[in-house]
Amino acid sequence: MSTLIYVDTNIYLDFLIKGRPPRQAEDAFNLFNRAIRCEFEILVSRKVKTELYPNIQGNESAMLFKFLEPKLKYAEPTLEDEEEASKTGTKDTADALHAILAKKYGAIFLVTQNIRHFKKFNNIIASKLPSDI
Q1: CA–CA distance, 35 with 14 (Å, rounded to integer)
Q2: Domain with 126 in it: what CATH number?
Q3: How many independent structural domains does the chain possess?
Q4: Using one digit for the tens of pLDDT, what is the confidence trace for 26-41?
């Protein structure tokens, strides 16, 4: 069984949106490339896709998920997960839900460019920059 990581929405956006900071785009590319080369599997949730699709035009995200399909595991948030996120004491329940799902489904860490946002959830799961894994 390979290592499982949860990839936050901003990493997908870094890969898919032109004009993102070049370093972040490169880090996203490298992360997905490493997954394809079997270094790890990616946990993706419906929450990620819900956040992603309004920001992407065309079929780019569908093409990316199709390409990554052999390395994807899926996490479906339940009402209990959403309630738990709302009880974390933060206004940022979306990020709380990402952290809860990552832990619930066995990811070893959550990969994000927003380390600052996820520090408050380190008691749930550790977060890392894509360049740090």
Answers
A1: 16
A2: 3.40.50.1010
A3: 1
A4: 999 999 999 999 999 9
